Amino acid sequence: MVRRACFLVVMAGVVLASCVPHGHGERPTPSHRPAPSRPVYDEAARRQCLAQLTADGAHYSVLPDRTFGNGCSAIGTVQLSDIGMPVSNLGAMTCPLADAFTRWTRDATQKAAQAWLSSPVVKIESFGTYSCRPVNNVAGARLSEHGLSNAVDISGFVLSNGRRITVLNDWNGPDEYARNFLRAVHDAGCRRFSVVLGPDANALHRNHLHFDMGPGPYCK
User: Fold this and answer.
1) What confidence tens digit (pLDDT) does each residue in 8-66 have?
2) Are the beta carbons of 59 and 118 closer than 8 angstroms?
3) What is the DSSP secondary structure assignment for residue 107, as one 8-state letter?
4) What angle do CA 195, 200, 205 make, to 5 degrees?
5) Burial call 156-181: b when 16+ CB within 10 Å, e when fewer
6) Domains contained in the chain, number
7) 80, 58 in Cβ contact below 8 A?
8) Is there a domain that residue 196 lies in?
């Protein structure tokens, strides 16, 4: 009887353990994503990325690898000079980020502008790329992907007809077509970047779309 009781206790423990979720397949949210690691590219991967960037029609300069304090770096980065339209405030970007951004600008942005606004985009406004800071500028938080030159923040779009669409004013603004345009470029970003955050993510992103190539996928 003692052996039978012990056997039943063990089996009950096995059944209970099998019912406890282990988190496999769960997507990390931005607040629980792993801390970014410094990008390291071997020479073959770097050449392949640069070749793809050239094939996608970008003009760029290759920047020297640099490391800074607090874990920040600009490793395997480029400076985009021409991707078919001007983009304000672009600094160092990792090559994979620059390539995804070039394709998003060339394909998704113009397609959405013609579909919803009947006018092409002639300029994109950005808050920049590299910035050595923690996530959301909160002291003690993990390093932002901006600290690895691996993120870009987009704030607005200027159309050929002179109209300016901004995330701050138009994401929840009165114009349905502007709202649909911004959601279209946001959703297209989710198919090209690892992580996309917009106004629906939190109040800190009420005025821009954040794109990065860090641990993902995550789209909000």
Assistant:
1) 333 333 333 333 333 333 334 444 444 444 555 578 888 999 999 999 999 999 999 99
2) no
3) I
4) 70
5) bbbbeeeeebbbeebbeeeeeebbeb
6) 1
7) yes
8) yes
Say which amino acid occupies 16: L
Which residues does residue 216 pair with via DSSP β-bridges, in sequence order?
Answer: none
In a domain, residue 145? The reply is yes
Mean pLDDT, the chain, whole residue set: 84
pTM for the whole structure: 0.79
Residues 6 or more apart whose CB falls under 8 angstroms from that of 148 comprise 36, 38, 39, 72, 73, 74, 75, 94, 214
pLDDT over 90 percentage in the chain: 71
Q: Which of 166, 139, 147, 144 is nearest to 155 (CA)?
A: 166
- Residue 196's closest CA among 174, 220, 167, 165? 220
In a domain, 115, yes or no: yes
DSSP state of 87: B
CATH code for the domain of 168? 3.30.1380
Domain annotation covers residue 112: yes
Q: Residue 212 corresponds to which tokens in the numbers above? A: 């990065």
Domain span at residue 140?
40-219
Residue 46: closest CA among 33, 29, 57, 62: 62
- pLDDT tens, 114-137? 999 999 999 999 999 999 988 877
